Amino acid sequence: MSSKQVIVYTDGSSRGNPGPGGYGVILIWGTVRKELSQGYRRTTNNRMELMAVIAALEAMKKDNLQLLVHSDSSYVVKAIEEGWLKNWIRTNFSGGKKNRDLWMRFHQLSQKHQVNMKWVKGHADNPYNNRCDELATAAADGGNLLVDEGYESEQ
After folding, report:
1. Rg for the chain (alpha carbons), in Å?
2. Which of 61, 112, 127, 148 has the fewest CB atoms inside 10 Å of its own CB, making it the most exposed?
3. CA 124 – CA 149 distance, rounded (Å)
4. 3-state SS of the chain: helix, strand, coil percent to 5?
5. pLDDT in tens, 54-79
6. Sign of the alpha-carbon dihedral angle for 109, 46, 134, 6
7. pLDDT tens digits for 13-52?
8. Residue-level pLDDT at 123
9. Any bridge partners for residue 25, and if so which?
10. Which tens digits make up the pLDDT trace of 108-125?
11. Beta bridge partners of 11
């Protein structure tokens, strides 16, 4: 592992989809490990999956880092790795593509780093992914829920 590479695990959760939701993140840089989580009062699973990646990027204190982001969301991984996002931006999210606010926020943050996505099977044998799931569901079920303004303003 490069000294500049940050290993990231992410997960999102929504109770009811839409409903209360949350995300969980684990950041690993060498021997340093940090966990992040936050809950929202009304949101969707896809938004929380993407919000987890955004929270990881926002937590970076330096630019030009290599991030290997693990996610069990095919939606997030394929949008980034298979170029869906580039096409959505090029076509101004035509055809009713959802979560434009979060995708643009991700896109802006991702320009500061080299971000590679890796899909992992959810609810399986990966202890980091399982821990992110615990963080996300605890955040969704907890107090101090924030307003997902991007979601709620569309409703």
Report:
1. 15
2. 61
3. 32
4. 40, 30, 30
5. 999 999 999 999 999 999 999 999 99
6. negative
7. 999 999 999 999 999 999 999 999 999 999 999 999 999 9
8. 85
9. 10, 36
10. 999 999 999 999 998 889
11. 24
Of 152, 142, 153, 155, which Cα lies nearest the Cα of 42?
152
Helix (H) or strand (E) holding 131: helix 127-141
- What does the DSSP assignment read for 53-103? HHHHHHT--SSS-EEEEEES-HHHHHHHHTSHHHHHHHTTTTTT-S-HHHH
Contacts of 120 (CB under 8 A, 6+ apart): 9, 70, 71, 72, 126, 129
Rounded CA gap, 78 and 37, in Å?
23
Domains and CATH numbers, the chain: 5-154 (3.30.420.10)
Residue type, 31: T
Between CA 139 and CA 73 the distance in angstroms is 18
Left if phi > 0, otherwise alpha if psi is -120 to 50, otherwise beta: which for 95?
A: left
Residue found under tokens 């590479």: 5
Please tell me the pTM assigned to this model: 0.96
